[in-house]
Amino acid sequence: MKNIGVVVAMSVESEPMEKLFGRPVNEYSYGVMSIKEYSYLDKRIYFATCTEGEIMASACTQYLISACGAELIFNYGLAGGLTDQKLGNTLLVKGVAHYEFDISPLNGAPAGKYDRFDGTVIATDEKMRVKVKALHPEIEEVICASGDKFVAEKAFKDRLVNDYGASVCEMESAGVLFTSLNAGVPQVILKVISDNGDDAQNFVDFVREKNFEYVALIAEILKNI
After folding, report:
1. Residue 182 lies in domain
2. What pTM did the predictor assign?
């Protein structure tokens, strides 16, 4: 049986899955994290709601790997659009820039540059991206700018686009990616556009009214990946 660990930040992102997967076979907490375990075909799927931010996303990812035996980490959730992205559009993340990591005073490297990586954009698992694209060729692959900040200023949005080629921004992908890479576990990161990157009200409206519209696609990929 394949064990899949699913990392989401907010309960509003995981609750709609219950309508598609049915009742969990097990449900428990790890600190502030909520874990719901589902059995589907030959898979054991662990949905973990970690709360917002890179640190909790990293801790949650490691828990799913160490405690649940996750052989694949699947991260999905809401993201702000930085370019001309349609509200509700689901995107496959091909690379992540952790823009808040900055040691430029020490070595002059640009923000987001870790010594162990060649550039500021760190690639997600290529084999898993190919599998997702085989299921849904129409899904666009993008770069995600990730940091512990809700981006609501146009100047900052423009910087993320210009410095990293990012199309979306959010607060968990870097924690998920770096932790799974460190453990040698493949990952898939999918994001849905919930706001346009400079209007917090768009985000609130999406969460209240339109969040469920993309969940069926996420569930279908989980079942077939």
Report:
1. 2-224
2. 0.91
